[in-house]
C-alpha cells in the first residue's frame, strides 16, 4: 500500500489504515514514557515525588509477587462488581419502565435527576454512620454513585428505540407486554450494554473514593497507606493497576458486546 | 367518476371511512391534518392514495392501522369500528422496520410466534413467504446484511405471513432506487394477484399509483382533503408493458393538474 499522504490522513471523520492508527497510539505512550524517564534522569523533580519508570516497574513486579497485593486487587474488584451489579439489577428495570411508560417516568425520573446532582462522596460520612466501615459501606457508596445516573441513562436508551419498530409489532398482533419484552428490550440491548460499560467506569472511580476514606484493604487503601510513608512508587503502581483493571474490564465489555449482538451495526 | 361498488353496504367493505377528520393538538396550535375525508376499499381491491407530502396520507393510514385515533367521523374494517391495532391489518412502512436482532426467517415468523403456531407450521409458512419474495438464500441473514429492496421484501413477507385481511402500505418503495422500485412494483402486483390481498397503498408517485392500482384517491394538502376518486383499472398495462400510453398520460396529467390546484 502507498503510504498515505497528509491529505489522506486528515480527512474529516474518514477511516485511516489500522497500521497508522496503532502507530499513533503506541507513539503517544512511548513519548510519555520518554518524557517521564528524562525528567527523572535530569532530576527535574525529586525521586521521592516522581519515581523513575524503571523503579515503578520493579515495584510493580515486587508487589504482584506478594499475595497481599492480590488480596487488595481481589477485594477491590469484589466491591466494584457488587456495587455495580446491585445498581444494574435494580436500576435497569426501573430505567426501562421509565423510558416506556410516561407514568413511571413521572415517578422515577425527577427524583433520580435530583439525587444524581448530590455528589456521592458527600454521602460517605452518612454511609459510615449507617453502615460503619464494613463491606456494605463501600458497596453502598458505589451503588449511590452509579444507581441514579444509570436509571436516567437507561430511560434515555429506552426512549431511543425507534417507534416504528413498536408500531410494526402492534400491526403484527403484539399487545403491550409482548411489545415490551419482545421488541423494546431486545432493541435496547446494544445501547444498554454501552451504558453499563460507562457506568462500570464510574463505579471504579467511586470505589477509590470509598477506599481512600473508609477502608482497611483494597487498592485505594494501599495508595493511602503508601502516602503515609512517602512511597510514591507504590502510589504510582496503585494508580496504574486501577487504570489497567478498568481498561481490561472495558475491553471485555466491548468484546462481549460484539459476541452478544452480532446483528447490531453502526456502534463500535 | 362513479364507481360500481357504490351500492355495497358498510359490512361488505374491507374498509369504510366516512367524514374522517383528524386534528393534532400541539402546544402552539391545532393542525388539521385530515378534513372530512370519506373513502372505501372493497375486499381484494388494490387502492392507492396519492397526494403531496403533508396532505395527511400517513395519518390516514395510521388511523386505519389503529396506531392513531381519529378526531371526528368513523372508520370501520369489515363493518367493525377500528379501535386499536390488530393482526387483521398488516402494515409496511416507508422506513425500515425489520427487527434487527432477528434473522430474516425469524422476522417473517414474528407474528406467527405471537399466535403460538406450531414449529412445523411456522417453518412451512416462512418457507412459503421466503420463496414468494425470493429470499430463501437469506433466511438466516440479519437485516443489516440486506439491501434496501431486500429489506422491504422481508417487510412485505412478514406482514403477509400473518395473513391479514388488509395490507396497509405507506410509501413502501419511497426510499428505493428506480430499478429496484420497478422490480418491487411488479413483485407486489404478482403477489396481489396470487394472494388476493386487499391493499391500501400510499404514494406520492403518480405513475406508481396508476401502474399498481384499480382505484386511486387523490388528496390535497392543507388541510388534507379528498380531491377526486378515479378508476385506474382500464387495462393500460399488459404485464409491465404500457399498452395504452395516451390514456396513461391523460390520467397522469389529470392527477398532476389536480395536485397543482
Ligand atoms: N404526531 C403529530 N403531531 C402533530 N402534527 C402532525 C403529527 N403527525 C403528522 N402531523 C401533521 O399532519 C400533517 C399530515 O402529515 P402526514 O400524515 O405525515 O402527511 P403525509 O404522509 O401525506 O406526508 C402534516 O402537516 C404534519 O405536520
Ligand atoms: Mg407520509
From TrEMBL, chain A:
Transmembrane segments: 20-42, 54-71, 77-102, 114-133, 139-156, 202-224, 236-261
Keywords assigned by UniProt, alphabetized: Cell membrane, Membrane, Transmembrane, Transmembrane helix, Transport
Topology with respect to the bilayer: Multi-pass membrane protein
UniProt subcellular location: Cell membrane
GO biological processes: alkanesulfonate transmembrane transport
Gene Ontology cellular-component terms listed: plasma membrane
Similarity field: Belongs to the binding-protein-dependent transport system permease family.
Name under which the protein is recorded: ABC transporter permease
Organism: Sporolactobacillus shoreae
UniProtKB/TrEMBL annotation, chain B:
Sorted UniProt keywords: ATP-binding, Nucleotide-binding, Transport
GO molecular function, one term: ABC-type quaternary ammonium compound transporting activity
Matching PROSITE patterns: ABC_TRANSPORTER_1, ABC_TRANSPORTER_2
CDD domains tied to this protein: ABC_NrtD_SsuB_transporters
Entries under Pfam families matching the protein: ABC_tran
Domain ABC transporter: 15-246
Record's catalysed reaction(s): a quaternary ammonium(out) + ATP + H2O = a quaternary ammonium(in) + ADP + phosphate + H(+)
Superkingdom, taxonomy of origin: Bacteria
E.C. designation(s): 7.6.2.9
Quaternary context: The complex is composed of two ATP-binding proteins (OpuCA), two transmembrane proteins (OpuCB and OpuCD) and a solute-binding protein (OpuCC).
The protein's name in its UniProt record: Carnitine transport ATP-binding protein OpuCA
